[in-house]
Amino acid sequence: MSEQTEWYRNLEIGIDKFKAQLGADARDFFLERFAKIARRVDQFSVDCPQCREYQARMSSILQELSIDVSQITKEKKRNYLGNMNTMLSHLKKAHGLISDGQNTGIWLVLGIGIGAALGATFSNPAIGISAGLGLGLALGVCLDAQARKAGKVI
Ligand SMILES: [Zn+2]
């Protein structure tokens, strides 16, 4: 992966500070995910104006929240998490990235569905479901491993 910019390094320092300020509440903010998104946004910002806008947004959100953590309202927290979702879906749609385990989840459900349907056709739903689950899981894990190898996992 390419080298991180000064923007990212500064943001990372900000994240660490914010985390220390929050203490036990830090887990509500999924800061690890925030940092992962920032790393990708940083990487794509060279060519993508939307990602450049996100860089500015991430800096200002973080700054605003960490001014006084005792003043973080539910509304502000919701806004923070909402922004994170928006950025995640941009990374997926515009840049073809996926969440870790995304394929496994999708194919597990599909496999069980297909297996149940086939099982019912042959009057043996239990075998159908377990075969479908096994195949779906295997395929999903394989696709996720491939995505990870290709650097496509956020
Ligand atoms: Zn982008």
What does this structure look like?
Helix 5 packs antiparallel against helix 6. This protein folds into 2 domains: 90 residues, no CATH class; 48 residues. It is elongated, with a radius of gyration of 20 Å. The model has no long low-confidence stretch (mean pLDDT 95). With 154 residues, it is an all-alpha fold. Bound molecules: zinc ion (ZN).
What is the number of strand segments?
A: 0
Report the bound ligands by name, code or SMILES. zinc ion
Give the class from helix and strand content and strand pairing.
mainly alpha
Largest sheet data: none
Helix content percent band? over 70%
Poorly predicted ranges (pLDDT <50, ≥5 residues)? none
How many distinct folded domains?
A: 2
State the end-to-end distance.
12 Å
The 3D shape can be described as: elongated
Provide the residue-averaged pLDDT: 95
Provide key terms for this protein.
154 residues; mainly alpha; 2 domains; 6 helices; binds zinc ion
Outline of the structure:
The protein has 154 residues and is an all-alpha fold. It contains six helices and no strands.
Layout: helices, strands, pairs:
Layout: H1 6-22, H2 31-44, H3 49-67, H4 74-95, H5 102-121, H6 125-149
Helix pairs in contact: 1-2, 1-3, 2-3, 2-4, 5-6
The structure holds zinc ion.
Zinc ion (ZN) is lined by residues 44, 48, 50-51, 90, 94-95.
